[in-house]
Amino acid sequence: MEEIVKFLKEAETYYLATVEGDQPRVRPFGTAHIFEGKLYIQTGKKKDVSKQLHANPKAELCAFKGGEWIRVAGELVEDDRIEARESMLDAYPSLKKMYAADDGNTEVFYFKNGVATISSFTHEPKVIKF
């Protein structure tokens, strides 16, 4: 999992895909954090992405850096504990300008049944299940 987070942080931006009805939705994200051995992301409850994940938790993200790309697929499960939100905000202090752990808006999700695939045109894909 550390390899996955390292890749995402070095890429700086990844794109998270969700589904709204029968329409895919993709948007840039930047949070990737390990808390209690799980890969977490963060958003706001007021955003469409939150509503989409609650309706259908299946999601995939993709990032590219240095000639390689990573895809991470799985189900995103909300962790409503304040400790999880605080851990994310401590890892990304710049988010504290917009979010607080107890603001009723900050939301963190972790990947369940996650599969990451690191690919390149020059090597075989590396698959990491977590």
Write up this protein.
Residues 2-88 form the Pyridoxamine 5'-phosphate oxidase N-terminal domain. This is Pyridoxamine 5'-phosphate oxidase. The protein has 130 residues and is of the alpha+beta class. Helix content is 22%, strand content 48%. It contains three helices and eight strands. Strands 1, 2, 3, 4, 5, 6, 7 and 8 form an eight-stranded antiparallel β-sheet that branches. The longest helix has 10 residues, at 2-11.
Helix percent reads 10-25%
Give the N-to-C terminal Cα separation: 7 Å
Multimerization state: single chain
Low-confidence stretches: none
Domain tally: 1
Number of helices: 3
Largest sheet: 8 strands, antiparallel
Secondary-structure element order, as H and E? HEEEEHEEHEE
Q: Given the C-alpha coordinates, what overall shape results?
A: globular
**And the CATH topology?**
Pnp Oxidase, Chain A
Organism: Blautia luti
Protein name: Pyridoxamine 5'-phosphate oxidase
Domain Pyridoxamine 5'-phosphate oxidase N-terminal: 2-88
Give a brief description:
Pfam families: PNPOx_N. The chain is an alpha+beta fold.
Any descriptors?
single chain, Pnp Oxidase, Chain A, eight-stranded antiparallel β-sheet, 22% helix, 130 residues
